[in-house]
Design a protein that fits this description.
The chain is an alpha+beta fold. The protein has one domain: tt1808, chain A (Alpha-Beta Complex), CATH 3.90.1570.10. The protein is about 25% helix and about 30% strand. It has 4 helices and 10 strands. The radius of gyration is 15 Å and the shape is globular.
Length: about 160
């Protein structure tokens, strides 16, 4: 991996994406899909219509499975059960907190803000109230009952 650029490169700053963020997104999607199988659809980078504005969380979790036989949708009006935002080194925490508040105000039941450097997940189901899970703890989302062993992500 000698050709990797530092996280503060111009492209990373412009797109708000990073290696660690992408790696964590893949691990999280895989862990959730393995645990919840057909009970939960784990969809990356899905653009949602949130109060008329397009917003794209890193992962959107919906109850049930995805039917690929249905017509495709570019801007999804249905809100997910959980919206997950994974911070990259170029993203400001305040902006991501505001985004999670917008999801909650629109009707998303829970938002997870993941900070890879600190190995922490901040879970919120109500404005201004966060429960923090770290390292190898068992995350239990109080608003949805979704659980995840964080060692699968951060280990």
């Amino acid at each position: 991996m000698d050709a990797l650029l530092p996280a503060d490169s111009a492209a990373a700053l412009r797109h708000g994406r990073s290696w660690n963020q992408a790696s964590l997104k893949a691990r999280l999607a895989t862990a959730l899909q393995r645990k919840y199988g057909n009970d939960l659809s784990v969809l990356p980078n899905l653009t949602l219509s949130v109060n008329g504005q397009p917003m794209t969380p890193d992962l959107s979790l919906f109850m049930g499975t995805t039917d690929l036989a249905k017509p495709d949708i570019a801007l999804v009006a249905e809100l997910p059960l959980i919206a997950i935002v994974i911070l990259s080194s170029s993203q400001a925490l305040d902006a991501q907190v505001k985004m999670s508040q917008n999801y909650l105000l629109a009707g998303v039941r829970s938002c997870w803000l993941i900070e890879p450097t600190l190995r922490a997940v901040f879970v919120t189901g109500s404005l201004g109230v966060y429960e923090t899970f770290n390292n190898n703890e068992m995350l239990c989302d109080p608003a949805t009952g979704i659980e995840l062993e964080l060692g699968l992500l951060f280990g």
